[in-house]
Automatic annotation (TrEMBL), chain A:
<dbReference type="GO" id="GO:0008270">
    <property type="term" value="F:zinc ion binding"/>
</dbReference>
<dbReference type="Pfam" id="PF04815">
    <property type="entry name" value="Sec23_helical"/>
</dbReference>
<protein>
    <recommendedName>
        <fullName>Protein transport protein Sec24-like CEF</fullName>
    </recommendedName>
</protein>
<dbReference type="InterPro" id="IPR006895">
    <property type="entry name" value="Znf_Sec23_Sec24"/>
</dbReference>
<feature type="domain" description="Sec23/Sec24 beta-sandwich">
    <location>
        <begin position="745"/>
        <end position="829"/>
    </location>
</feature>
<dbReference type="InterPro" id="IPR006896">
    <property type="entry name" value="Sec23/24_trunk_dom"/>
</dbReference>
<dbReference type="InterPro" id="IPR036180">
    <property type="entry name" value="Gelsolin-like_dom_sf"/>
</dbReference>
<dbReference type="Pfam" id="PF08033">
    <property type="entry name" value="Sec23_BS"/>
</dbReference>
<dbReference type="GO" id="GO:0090110">
    <property type="term" value="P:COPII-coated vesicle cargo loading"/>
</dbReference>
UniProtKB/TrEMBL annotation, chain B:
<dbReference type="InterPro" id="IPR037364">
    <property type="entry name" value="Sec23"/>
</dbReference>
<keyword id="KW-0472">Membrane</keyword>
<keyword id="KW-0653">Protein transport</keyword>
<dbReference type="InterPro" id="IPR006895">
    <property type="entry name" value="Znf_Sec23_Sec24"/>
</dbReference>
<keyword id="KW-0862">Zinc</keyword>
<dbReference type="InterPro" id="IPR012990">
    <property type="entry name" value="Beta-sandwich_Sec23_24"/>
</dbReference>
<dbReference type="InterPro" id="IPR036174">
    <property type="entry name" value="Znf_Sec23_Sec24_sf"/>
</dbReference>
<dbReference type="Pfam" id="PF04811">
    <property type="entry name" value="Sec23_trunk"/>
</dbReference>
<dbReference type="GO" id="GO:0070971">
    <property type="term" value="C:endoplasmic reticulum exit site"/>
</dbReference>
Length: 1090, 791
C-alpha cells in the first residue's frame, strides 16, 4: 500500500466540502458550479457531488488523480490512492492518531445528502457549510456524550469533556491528548500491538482470547428481590468470575474510570446507537464496573437512584418467588443504549485470530488485516457454533449481513484491485473459491489448501512463491489477495458473457391528471433535470426518458432533429418500443434536449385529463427500451396503476368494505395481488434492468404489489406520502441524486461460499434468484444489504476457523467488470457461553427484523408479533438456562452482548410494520425498506433517535454535532420544547404547545404556533439556533445516507399521535411499556424454566 | 370478312361516345325471352358512368334545387321524362311499373306549358341538389370538407423518400384550405401523427405485427368518448367547418389528428422535412419490415372514429410489400420471392388468402364508414395490390402502379387528384346507386368499383355476376370516369309473356346519390328507354342495336371476373367459343363455306377486339405479376368504354410527310422507316420513330431551319401524346423509342404479328418483323370463318 505519509496532507475542509472556497482538493470535488445561483427549484443539496468514479482506485499512488469521493468527500489528496468511496487519502496519518484524528475525520464525511431545501439565494452550503465546522468534531455515530445538564447517569457514558476542553476530535493532537472516555488513547496510539479499540469499548471486553469466564457479560435484572444482599453488584458476585476486562487486556476499561470517574453529572439518558456499552452503575460504585447486575431492585436503588418524581412502574412480584413487598422497577435503571464515545480503530484480525468487530453503529476505522471490514460483511455471532444443535439451543440466528458496497470510513484504506492478467484470479479448482488469506500454502508453496472445501490445489506456476519460516508465503504481505479480507479482481473473459454494460438510466414519469395536479410531475422533472449532472461522466452513460398516463410517451432526443419527437405507445396491454435505437442516448449528446424536454413536460401535460396510469405497461416499455443493454429504470409514479398490464385495484378499500374477510385475511393485502408483476420483474432481472420506484402519491397505490418489481431487480421504493409539492421536491431530488451517484455496480452476480460443515440456507434482500447458489443483482449499491442464512450440514472442528467468502461479480458504472471478494474467517466454538459472549446484537436484530418483515404478509399480525417476542424470549431463556447459574429466580438475567435485545424487540413489535393501525401502504413500504436495510440502519428504523433541538444553542458545546438522544418516552418530551425524532427515513419535528415564540421564530421563522406551516420546509435563518438545527439535520442526513422526510407534529393532532407512537418505552393501548415488557419477558422465561 | 376500317377503332375525341346519359348497352334492343338472350352470346349489360360530367356542348340543365318525386313503393322509381303525365288530374304514371302517382301540392302549378325540368324530354339525366350534409336532405349548411389521410411508407431508400416528400409538398400546396389532412407513416411500426399538438412532434406508435381492431385503435387513441380522451387543449371552434356533420364525440379526435390544411401546413412541412426512412434495421438477406396492413387499419380506424359517414380518402403511398402483421404477402426473407400467378394457380402462395381476407374485412369497414382507399404503389417488385384489390375496388379507390415515386406515372397522377378545375378528376364521395327497371328485367350484379348494399328486391336475378343480389350499391369514392358494368337478365313472367298488349319499350333507371366535389349531396337520375325485340327471328333489330365496343369491354370485364373467381377457367377457349357462336348467330354466310362469311358493320370490329383481348394482359396474365394484373383489371373495370377499348386494343396513329396523321392498322406492317407511330395502349403511350426518322433526328436535321417541317413532324406525335396523357388518370407511361431499339418492344408486343421470322414474305426495307410464334390476326380470322360456318 502506498505510504500515505508521503501524500499531501489533507486539508481540513468543511466536512462536506461543499463550498470550500479554497481549492485545495481536486477541483472535481468541489461542486462549485452549484453554489452560484441554483435554479429556483434547485436546492443546493448534495453539495460535493464529485464527478469522479467512486470505484476508481489507483493501482499506484499516482495513477488516479483526484478520484473524488462520490459524496463530496474531502477534497485533497491528488494522486493518492483513494478509498473506494471517497475516503480521504490520508489513512495513514490518521492511523497514527488514536482515534482518527480530526483532519481526516473532519473532512472525511462522505456527504450523502446536501443541505435542506433552502432559499436559493443562500450562499453558504447548507450542509456543514459554516467554516467553523471545518475543524469541528466529525460526525459520529454514538458520539461522545454531550454536556446535557440533566445527565443523571453517573456512569452512563464517556465522561463529558468540560466545556472548555477541546472537543475530543477537534484536532489531531487534541484527539491524541484528549482523554477519551474510558480509554487510554495515548497508549493505544503509541502501541499498535494492544487492542486498538478495546480501551474505549467496554462492551467488548471479551476479546477472543483465553477467556474462560462463562458470562461476565451477562446482566441480571433483578425483580423485586429485596432479600438479595448485594444488589447492585450481584453480577460480579453471582458469577464470581474475575472481570477479565478489569485485569488483562483492557486496562483502559477501568483505568479511565478511575481517573475520570464521573466527570459529568449522572446522565439519565445515555443515548447511543452504539455498541452495547450500557453499564449499570451504582452511586458509589466508584471504580467498580459491574458488567452485569442490573440494579433493578427498587428497594435497593431507592436511596441511590430513582430521581424523585420519576414515575416507577408498579409491579406485582411473581407470586411464590417474590416476597410480598410491592416492588418496582426503576425505569431509569433498565438497559438502554448508550452513546459510544470515540472513533475506534479496528483491526480485523490480530494474532492470527478474528477480532470482534465494533458495534455497527459506532464510528470506527477498519484496518483490514485479513478479515473483511465488518461494514461489508458481519455475522450474527462472532464465533461459529460447531454443531447445529448448539446453534439451535442458543436460539440465535446464524446469518451474515453482506453489504458489499458499504461506504467505508474515509480514513480507511481503499479496497485494492488485483489484476491477474490473462490467468484470471486464482481459484480453488473444486469449489471455485477465490484465493484469500486463509488458503494455506503447503509443500514449499507448490500446493494450496482451500479454506472452504479443503481441497488441495496445485499452485499455478506463475503464482509460485516460496514459503517463509512462518509457513506463510514470502510475498503474502505484498499481495493484497493474501493479506486482505477484501480485494477486487479484474474479471477476465471467462466472466464476461458480453461486453460490460454501459451505465443506462431510463426515467419514467407519471403524467396522469393526479400527478400533474399535485405537482408530482413537475417535481420529478425538476429532480431529474438537476440530477443529470450527477450521472457518471463519460461516453458510456446513457439516458432515456418516457412519460405515461393511459399510454406511454417516449421521446427521441436525437440531436439532429429540430425538436424532440414524442412517440406514443398506446397499447398498454401488450407494449412494445417505438424505436429500435435512439430511445437511449449518451447523456453528452442529448443533455440540452433532455433538459429542455424536462422543462416542458409539466406544461405539455398541463391540461391532461387522463386519470388512468398504465404503470406496469410503462415499466415494461421502459424495459424494452433498455433491454439490449440493461440499466436502471427510475419510475416516478403517483397513482394506483389502473390500466394495462399489471394494473391493480384499490384492494385497501375493498378490504375495508368487507370487514369479515378484511379482518381474517388482513395480511393477504400485504401480499402481491398476483404474479403479473413478479413475472415481469423476473424478466427485467434477466436482462439486467433494475427498477427504482419513486411514489409521489396522495392515495393507496398498493405498494405490496408493486414493490415486488424493485425488490426483484435490486432496486428500492421511495415513498412520499402524502406528496407535498412544497416540501417533498427537495427530498425527491436528493433521493434521486443519491440513487444515481452513490457507489454502485450493475449486472452483478453474488455468491456466498462457506466452509464445509455449513451451507448457505437462504438469501434475503432485493435480488433475483434463478439458481439456488447465486443471486442476480441487476444493480447493487452502497445501501443494499443481503442477508445470508446458514445451516449446519456437518460438525465443525473446534479450534479451527470457519470461512465465509462472498464473491460479487459486477460491472462498474464505467464499464469495468470486477469481482469483489469479501472474506471472513471466524473461529469455531462448542461453548454456548462463547456464542452469547460473541453475539452481535445489531446484526442479530437486523436478522430478526428482516425475518419479521418477511413473515408479515404470510401470517396474521398478532402471530408475527408473538414470534418476534418469542425469539427474544427463547434466546434469553437459553442463556438463563445454560449459561447463568443464577440463584435467584427473581432475576432477569441478560447476556451482556444482548442486553438490549428486549428493548429492540419491543421496538420491533411496536414498529410501523407490525402495528395494527397503520395504513397498508405504509406497512408495505416498511417491509420493502427492511428487505434490503443495512445493519446500521436496522436499529434506528424501529428505535429512532429523539433529539431536543430547542436548546441546541444553550447546551454546553460538546464534541458531537448531534446532541445525545433522549430515551423514547413521554417524560422526555416537554411541551415547551422542540424535538426531532428520526429513524433514518422520517424526521418528525415535534413542537410542544408551550414553546417559546422566540424559538419558533428562530427555527421556523414564524412567531406563533398557529402560523406553523403544515408542510414543513426547513429553512436556515440567520441565527445560531437555526444554523444548529440545520447542522444537526444535515449531519443526520449524512449519517443515514437519507434525506429525511421532515414533518411537523403537534400535540392534539394526528401528527402528534403519530409522533408519540414512536415513543416506544411508553405504554400504548394494547402494547407493553418497556418495563412491562421486561416483566413479561421475565415471566415467560420463568414459566419456561419451570 | 374484310379487314375492318381502322379509323373506326380510334375513338372520336370530339363526339361523346357515351352520350348525355353516359350509359352504353351491349344491346340496344333486347330480346324478350331468356333463351333468346342467351343466344345473343354477349350478355345484356350496361356500362354506366354515374358521376360523369356531361360535355359542355350538351345543354344539360343545371342541378335542380329540390327533392325528386318517387313512385310509390316497391317501385320507388323517380319521376322522369318517360312518365306519362295527366296534367289535369295532376297524376303521373310511372313508366316502369305503370303505377299512378299524384303530384304533391307544390307541383300544383304543373301544366303542359309549365313542366318541371325533370320532365323535359332531353333531361333523361337530371341532378338534384338535396343538401349539404349526408342524411339530412335539404338541410342547409356548409358542406363537409374533403378529408385526406395520407399513409406513407417509410421503408424506402432515401431517394424515394425524397420523391415522396416532394410529391406530398406539392399535394399539400394544392389542397383547398379547408380540407382536413391527417398523416400516418409506417415501416416496421405505424406512426400516427397528432398534427394538432403544437409543443413537439407527437406520434402514436402502433406495432406492425399485431392485428388491431377498430375498437382497440379508438380506445388507444382516446377517441372513445370520456375517460381516455386527453388533451382537450385545442379549443373547439364553434361553427367551424370541421364540426359540421360530424360525429359529436369525434370532434376532439378531429382536432387532434385531422386538421384543416390552413392550420397544419407548417406542422406538416416540418414533419415532412424531418421524416426519415424507417429506423428499424433491416438484416442482410431480408426485406424491410413493413406493416402496410396495420397502417391501413389504423388509418381506417381513425377515420371511422372521426369521420363516419363523411367522405374521406385514405391515400396510401406504398414502396414495397407488406412483410409483417395482417395483410402480409411475403415473409421478410429475401430468398422467398413474392407470389406469382403460377404460385397462385398452384396454391403455393401461403399468405395470399389470409391477406385477401384481411383486406376484405378492411373493405367492409371502409364501406360501412363511407371511406375510400387509394393506393399509389411505386416499387420495382410487387407491393401486394393483388391482395388489396378488394379493398380498393370495393371502396372505389384510385390506384396507380409505377416503378418509382420519381416516375412521372406517380408524380403526375398523384398531383392530378388534388388539382381542381378543368383537370379535376371530380372526386366524389359516399355514392350509392340504385337501379330500377321495367318488370321482366332483373339485375344480376355489377362489375366495377362498388359494393353491394345487400338490399334485396324484386329486380334481383337468380344468377349473380360480381356484386349482386341487391338493388343498391355503395360507391365510397367515384369520379367523372368511374364506370360500372351492370349485368341484366330477362325473365319474363307468365303474364307478361302473353302476346299482345305489350309495352314495346323497356326502361332502366339509375339513381345515384353522392357527395359532389363541391360538398353538396346530389341525386342523379338517369332513365333510359330501349326497345324490346319480339320473337326469335328478328335478328335484324338485334344486330342494329349491337354496340361492339361496349360488348368487347363487357366481355373483357366479364372474363376477368371469371378468371379470378373460377379455378381452371380457360379464358382463351371461352372467348373463342363465344366469338364463334356470335359469328354463327349473327354472321352472313352459307353453311360450310368460309369464304361466304361476312359480318354486319356493327360487328365488324368485334373479332379484332377479341383477337387483341386474347393476347392482352387481361387474358395472358402469365406475362405479368399478380399485382400488375390486379392493377390492369381494376382500371379496366372502372374506366369508360372508350378508355377500356384502348386497353384491349390500342390505337395506332401514323405520322409521316406523306399524309396527315391517320390511324393505321395495329399491325407490324404499319411500321415504316419514314414514319413515326404513336401507340396508345392506355397504360403506356409509345412514340416510335422509324429507322430513317431516327437517323435524321440523330443527325439533327430538326434543328436546321430548312427542315422545320421535319421538326414539326417530330413534334406532333409528342403533342398528340401529351393530349392523351393530359386527359387520363392514371397518367400513362410515355415511351419514346426508335425502330430496332430496345424500347421498341412496347410497340411490337401490341402489334398483330402479320410478319414474323417464320413468314415467307420478303421483308420490305424499313418494315419490321416480330419474333413470335403467335398466330396473326389473318390466321385467326381464317379459323374463325371456318368454324363459324360449320354446321
Amino acid at each position: 500500500m502506498a505510504s500515505p505519509e508521503q501524500q499531501p496532507r489533507q486539508q481540513p475542509a468543511p466536512p462536506f466540502a461543499a463550498q470550500n472556497p479554497t481549492a485545495q482538493g481536486p477541483p472535481g470535488a468541489l461542486p462549485a458550479a452549484r453554489s452560484g445561483a441554483p435554479p429556483p427549484a434547485a436546492r443546493p443539496a448534495f453539495p460535493g457531488s464529485p464527478p469522479a468514479p467512486p470505484f476508481v482506485r489507483a493501482p499506484t499512488a499516482t495513477a488516479a488523480p483526484s478520484a473524488a469521493p462520490p459524496f463530496g468527500g474531502p477534497p485533497g489528496a491528488v494522486s493518492q490512492q483513494r478509498p473506494p468511496f471517497g475516503g480521504p487519502p490520508g489513512a495513514a496519518p490518521q492511523q497514527a492518531l488514536p482515534f482518527g484524528g480530526s483532519p481526516g475525520v473532519a473532512s472525511r464525511a462522505p456527504t450523502p445528502f446536501g443541505g435542506p431545501p433552502s432559499a436559493a439565494s443562500q450562499a453558504p452550503p447548507l450542509f456543514g457549510g459554516s467554516p467553523g465546522l471545518a475543524s469541528q468534531a466529525p460526525p459520529t455515530l454514538g458520539g461522545p456524550p454531550t454536556a446535557t445538564a440533566q445527565s443523571s447517569l453517573p456512569f452512563g457514558g464517556p465522561p463529558v469533556a468540560a466545556a472548555s476542553q477541546a472537543p475530543p476530535f477537534g484536532g489531531p493532537h487534541g484527539a491524541a491528548s484528549h482523554t477519551p472516555p474510558f480509554g487510554g488513547p495515548t497508549a493505544v496510539a503509541s502501541q499498535p500491538a494492544p487492542p486498538m479499540f478495546g480501551g474505549s469499548r467496554p462492551a467488548f471486553p471479551g476479546q477472543p482470547g483465553p477467556m474462560t469466564a462463562a458470562s461476565p457479560q451477562s446482566m441480571p435484572l433483578n425483580f423485586g428481590a429485596p432479600q438479595q444482599p448485594p444488589p447492585p453488584f450481584t453480577g460480579q458476585t453471582q458469577f464470581g468470575a474475575p472481570r477479565p476486562g478489569g485485569q488483562l487486556p483492557f486496562p483502559a476499561q477501568s483505568a479511565p474510570a478511575q481517573q475520570l470517574p464521573f466527570m459529568g453529572p449522572p446522565r439519565a439518558n445515555a443515548p447511543a446507537f452504539g455498541p452495547p456499552s450500557w453499564q449499570t452503575q451504582g452511586a458509589g460504585s466508584g471504580a467498580m464496573q459491574p458488567p452485569m447486575g442490573m440494579p433493578g431492585i427498587p428497594g435497593m436503588q431507592q436511596n441511590t437512584l430513582g430521581p424523585p418524581g420519576t414515575p416507577t412502574m408498579p409491579y406485582s412480584p411473581h407470586a411464590g418467588t417474590q416476597v410480598s413487598t410491592p416492588s418496582k422497577i426503576d425505569p431509569t435503571q433498565i438497559p438502554r443504549p448508550m452513546t459510544e464515545g470515540s472513533v475506534i480503530i479496528y483491526e480485523t484480525r490480530q494474532g492470527g485470530q478474528a477480532t470482534i468487530p465494533p458495534a455497527a453503529s459506532s464510528e470506527f476505522i477498519v484496518k483490514d488485516t485479513g478479515n473483511c471490514s465488518p461494514r461489508l460483511m458481519r455475522c450474527t455471532v462472532n464465533q461459529i457454533p460447531c454443531t447445529g444443535d448448539l446453534l439451535t439451543t442458543s436460539g440465535m440466528p446464524l446469518a451474515l449481513m453482506v453489504q458489499p458496497f458499504a461506504l467505508p470510513h474515509p480514513s480507511e484504506e481503499p479496497i485494492q484491485l488485483v489484476d491477474f492478467g490473462e490467468m484470471g484470479p486464482i481459484r480453488c479448482s473444486r469449489c471455485k473459491a477465490y484465493i484469500n488469506p486463509f488458503m494455506k500454502f503447503v509443500d514449499q508453496g507448490r500446493h494450496f489448501i482451500c479454506n472452504l472445501c479443503g481441497f488441495r490445489n496445485d499452485t499455478p506456476r506463475e503464482y509460485m512463491c516460496n514459503l517463509g519460516p512462518d509457513g506463510r508465503r514470502r510475498d503474502a504481505d505484498d499481495r493484497p489477495e493474501l493479506c486482505r479480507g477484501t480485494v477486487e479482481f479484474v474479471a477476465t473473459k471467462e466472466f464476461l458473457v458480453r461486453d460490460p454494460m454501459p451505465a443506462v438510466y431510463f426515467f419514467l414519469i407519471d403524467v396522469s391528471m393526479n400527478s400533474i395536479q399535485t405537482g408530482a410531475t413537475a417535481a420529478a422533472c425538476s429532480a431529474i433535470a438537476q440530477a443529470i449532472s450527477d450521472l457518471p461522466e463519460g461516453p458510456r452513460t446513457m439516458v432515456g426518458i418516457a412519460t405515461f398516463d393511459s399510454a406511454i410517451h417516449f421521446y427521441s432526443l436525437k440531436r439532429a432533429q429540430q425538436q424532440p419527437l414524442m412517440l406514443i405507445v398506446p397499447d398498454v396491454q401488450d407494449v412494445y418500443t417505438p424505436l429500435q435505437t435512439d430511445l437511449i442516448l449518451p447523456v453528452s449528446e442529448c443533455r440540452e434536449n433532455l433538459e429542455q424536454l424536462l422543462e416542458s413536460i409539466p406544461n405539455m401535460f398541463e391540461n391532461n385529463r387522463v386519470a388512468d396510469s398504465a404503470f406496469g405497461a410503462a415499466m415494461k416499455a421502459g424495459f424494452l427500451a433498455i433491454k439490449s443493454t440493461g440499466g436502471k429504470l427510475l419510475v416516478f409514479q403517483s397513482v394506483l396503476p389502473s390500466l394495462g398490464v399489471g394494473s391493480l385495484s384499490a384492494r385497501e378499500a375493498e378490504g375495508r368494505a368487507n370487514v369479515t374477510t378484511g379482518d381474517k385475511e388482513a395480511h393477504k393485502l400485504l401480499q402481491p395481488v398476483d404474479n403479473t408483476l413478479k413475472t415481469m420483474a423476473l424478466e427485467f432481472a434477466e436482462y439486467q434492468v433494475c427498477v427504482d420506484l419513486f411514489l409521489t402519491t396522495q392515495a393507496y397505490v398498493d405498494i405490496a404489489s408493486i414493490s415486488v418489481v424493485p425488490q426483484t431487480t435490486g432496486g428500492r421504493v421511495y415513498y412520499y406520502y402524502p406528496f407535498s409539492a412544497l416540501s417533498d421536491p427537495a427530498k425527491l431530488f436528493n433521493d434521486l441524486r443519491w440513487n444515481i451517484s452513490r457507489p454502485q455496480g450493475f449486472e452483478a452476480v453474488m455468491r456466498v461460499r462457506c466452509s464445509q460443515g455449513l451451507q448457505v440456507q437462504d438469501y434475503f434482500g432485493n435480488f433475483c434468484k434463478r439458481v439456488p447458489t447465486d443471486i442476480d443483482l441487476p444493480a447493487i449499491d452502497s445501501d443494499k444489504t443481503v442477508m445470508v442464512t446458514f445451516k449446519h450440514d456437518d460438525k465443525l472442528q473446534e479450534n479451527t476457523e470457519c470461512g465465509f467468502q462472498c464473491a460479487l461479480l459486477y460491472t462498474t458504472v464505467y464499464g469495468q467488470r470486477r469481482i469483489r471478494v469479501i472474506n471472513l474467517s471466524l473461529s469455531c466454538t462448542s461453548l454456548l457461553s462463547s456464542l452469547f459472549r460473541y453475539a452481535d446484537l445489531e446484526t442479530q436484530f437486523a436478522s430478526f427484523l428482516k425475518q419479521a418483515a418477511n413473515g408479515i404478509p404470510a401470517s396474521p399480525l398478532p402471530r408475527t408479533r408473538d414470534e418476534a417476542t418469542n425469539t427474544c424470549i427463547n434466546i434469553l431463556q437459553s442463556y438463563r438456562k445454560h449459561c447463568a447459574s443464577v440463584t435467584s429466580s427473581g432475576q432477569l438475567i441478560l447476556p451482556e452482548a444482548l442486553k438490549l435485545l428486549p428493548l429492540y424487540t419491543l421496538a420491533l413489535v411496536k414498529s410501523v410494520g407490525l402495528r395494527t393501525d397503520g395504513r397498508l401502504d405504509e406497512r408495505s413500504y416498511w417491509m420493502s425498506l427492511v428487505s434490503s436495510i443495512s445493519v446500521v440502519l436496522a436499529v434506528p428504523l424501529v428505535f429512532p433517535r429523539l433529539i431536543p433541538i430547542h436548546d441546541l444553542t444553550t447546551r454546553a458545546d460538546d464534541d458531537s454535532l448531534i446532541p445525545s438522544p433522549l430515551m423514547l418516552n413521554s417524560e422526555n418530551v416537554q411541551e415547551d420544547g422542540v424535538y426531532l425524532l428520526e429513524n433514518g427515513e422520517d424526521g418528525l419535528i415535534y413542537v410542544g404547545n408551550m414553546v417559546n415564540p422566540a424559538t419558533l421564530v428562530q427555527i421556523f421563522g414564524v412567531s406563533s404556533l398557529a402560523a406553523l406551516p403544515v408542510q414543513l420546509v426547513l429553512e436556515q435563518f440567520d441565527n445560531e439556533l437555526s444554523r444548529k438545527v440545520n447542522e444537526v439535520v444535515n449531519e443526520i442526513r449524512r449519517q443515514r445516507c437519507s434525506y429525511l422526510r421532515l414533518r411537523l407534529c403537534r400535540r392534539g393532532e394526528p401528527s402528534g399521535d403519530f409522533f408519540r407512537s414512536f415513543l416506544i418505552e411508553d405504554k400504548a393501548p394494547g402494547v407493553f411499556s418497556y418495563v412491562e415488557f421486561l416483566v413479561h419477558v421475565h415471566r415467560q422465561i420463568q414459566s419456561k424454566m419451570t | 370478312m374484310s379487314a375492318a376500317d381502322p379509323s373506326a377503332a380510334a375513338p372520336a375525341a370530339a363526339a361523346d361516345p357515351d352520350g348525355p346519359d353516359a350509359v352504353r348497352l351491349t344491346w340496344n334492343a333486347w330480346p324478350r325471352s331468356k333463351v333468346e338472350a342467351s343466344r345473343c352470346v354477349v350478355p345484356l349489360a350496361a356500362t354506366v358512368s354515374p358521376a360523369r360530367v356531361p360535355d359542355r356542348s350538351t345543354a344539360a340543365p343545371p342541378p335542380l334545387p329540390y327533392l325528386p318525386l318517387r313512385c310509390k313503393p316497391p317501385c320507388s322509381a323517380l319521376l322522369n321524362p318517360f312518365a306519362r303525365v295527366d296534367f289535369a288530374a295532376k297524376i303521373w304514371i310511372c313508366p316502369l311499373c305503370f303505377s299512378r302517382n299524384h303530384f304533391p301540392p307544390h307541383y300544383a302549378a304543373i301544366s303542359e306549358s309549365n313542366v318541371p325540368a325533370e320532365l323535359f324530354p332531353q333531361c333523361s339525366t337530371v341532378e338534384y341538389i338535396v343538401g349539404g350534409a349526408p342524411g339530412a336532405p335539404g338541410a342547409a349548411g356548409a358542406p363537409p370538407p374533403p378529408v385526406f389521410l395520407f399513409v406513407i411508407d417509410t421503408c424506402v431508400i432515401e431517394e424515394e423518400l425524397e420523391y415522396v416528400k416532394m410529391a406530398m409538398r406539392k399535394a399539400v400546396a394544392l389542397l383547398p384550405e379547408h380540407a382536413l389532412v391527417g398523416l400516418v407513416t409506417f415501416g416496421t411500426q405505424v406512426h400516427l401523427h397528432e398534427l394538432g399538438f403544437s409543443d413537439l412532434s407527437k406520434i402514436y406508435v402502433f406495432r406492425g405485427t399485431k392485428e388491431i381492431s377498430k375498437e382497440q385503435i379508438l380506445d388507444q387513441l382516446g377517441l372513445t368518448g370520456a375517460g381516455r380522451s386527453g388533451f382537450p387543449k385545442i379549443p373547439q371552434q364553434p361553427g367551424g367547418p370541421q364540426v359540421n356533420g360530424m360525429h359529436p364525440a369525434a370532434t376532439a379526435g378531429v382536432n387532434r389528428f385531422l386538421l384543416p390544411v390552413s392550420e397544419c401546413e407548417c406542422t406538416l412541412s416540418t414533419l415532412l422535412d424531418e421524416l426519415q426512412s424507417d429506423q428499424w434495421p433491416v438484416e442482410a438477406g431480408n426485406r424491410a419490415m413493413r406493416c402496410t396492413g396495420v397502417a391501413l387499419s389504423v388509418a381506417a380506424g381513425l377515420l371511422g372514429a372521426c369521420m363516419p359517414g363523411t367522405g374521406a380518402r385514405i391515400i396510401a403511398l406504398l414502396g414495397g410489400p407488406c412483410t409483417e402483421g395482417p395483410g402480409m404477402i411475403v415473409s421478410k426473407d429475401l430468398s422467398e420471392p413474392v407470389r406469382s400467378h403460377k404460385d397462385l394457380d398452384k396454391d403455393a402462395a401461403p399468405h395470399f388468402q389470409k391477406a385477401v381476407k384481411f383486406y376484405d374485412g378492411l373493405a367492409k369497414q371502409l364501406v360501412s364508414q363511407g371511406h375510400v382507399l387509394d393506393v399509389f404503389a411505386s416499387a420495382l417488385d410487387q407491393v401486394g395490390l393483388a391482395e388489396m384489390k378488394v379493398a380498393i375496388e370495393r371502396t372505389g379507390g384510385l390506384v396507380v402502379l409505377s416503378e418509382s415515386f420519381g416516375h412521372s406515372v406517380f408524380k403526375d397522377s398523384f398531383k392530378r387528384i388534388f388539382e381542381g378545375g378543368e383537370q379535376s378528376l371530380g372526386l366524389s364521395f359516399n355514392g350509392t346507386i340504385e337501379i330500377n327497371c321495367s318488370k321482366d328485367i332483373k339485375v344480376q350484379g355489377i362489375i366495377g368499383p362498388c359494393t353491394s348494399l345487400e338490399k334485396k328486391g324484386a329486380v334481383c336475378a337468380d344468377t349473380v355476376v360480381g356484386q349482386g343480389n341487391t338493388t343498391a350499391w355503395k360507391m365510397c369514392g367515384l369520379d367523372r370516369n368511374t364506370s360500372l358494368t351492370v349485368f341484366f337478365d330477362v325473365s319474363p313472367s307468365e303474364r307478361s309473356s302473353q302476346p299482345g298488349h305489350q309495352n314495346p319499350h323497356l326502361y332502366i333507371q339509375f339513381v345515384t346519390s353522392y357527395q359532389h366535389p363541391e360538398g353538396q349531396m346530389r341525386i342523379r337520375v338517369t332513365t333510359i328507354c330501349r326497345k324490346w325485340v319480339d320473337g326469335s327471328t328478328n335478328t335484324e333489330e338485334l344486330v342494329e342495336g349491337f354496340d361492339q365496343e361496349t360488348a368487347a369491354v363487357v366481355l373483357a370485364r366479364y372474363i376477368s371476373l371469371k378468371m379470378e373467381m373460377e379455378e381452371e377457367f380457360d379464358a382463351t377457349r371461352w372467348l373463342d367459343r363465344s366469338l364463334i357462336r356470335l359469328c354463327s348467330r349473327f354472321g352472313d354466310y352459307r353453311k360450310d363455306d368460309p369464304s361466304s362469311f361476312s359480318l354486319h358493320s356493327n360487328f365488324s370490329l368485334f373479332p379484332q377486339f377479341m383477337f387483341n383481348l386474347r393476347r392482352s394482359q387481361f387474358v395472358q396474365v402469365f406475362n405479368n405479376s399478380p399485382d400488375e394484373t390486379a392493377y390492369f383489371r381494376m382500371l379496366l373495370n372502372r374506366e369508360s368504354v372508350t378508355n377500356s377499348v384502348a386497353m384491349i386494343q390500342p390505337s395506332l396513329i401514323s405520322f409521316s410527310f406523306d399524309s396527315p396523321p391517320s390511324p393505321v392498322f395495329l399491325d407490324v406492317a404499319s411500321i415504316a422507316a419514314d414514319r413515326i407511330l404513336l401507340l396508345d395502349a392506355y397504360f403506356s403511350v409509345v412514340i416510335f420513330h422509324g429507322m430513317t426518322i431516327a437517323q435524321w433526328r440523330n443527325m439533327g436535321y430538326q434543328n436546321q431551319p430548312e427542315h422545320e417541317q421535319f421538326a414539326q413532324l417530330l413534334q406532333s406525335p409528342h403533342e398528340e401524346a401529351q393530349m392523351i396523357i393530359k386527359g387520363r388518370f392514371p397518367v400513362p407511361r410515355l415511351v419514346v423509342c426508335d425502330q430496332h431499339g430496345s424500347q421498341a418492344r412496347f410497340l411490337l408486343a401490341k402489334l398483330n404479328p402479320s410478319a414474323t421470322y417464320n413468314s415467307a414474305h420478303d421483308v420490305a426495307p424499313g418494315s419490321d418483323i416480330i419474333f413470335t410464334d403467335d398466330v396473326s390476326f389473318q390466321v385467326f380470322c381464317e379459323h374463325l370463318q371456318r368454324l363459324a360456318v360449320q354446321s
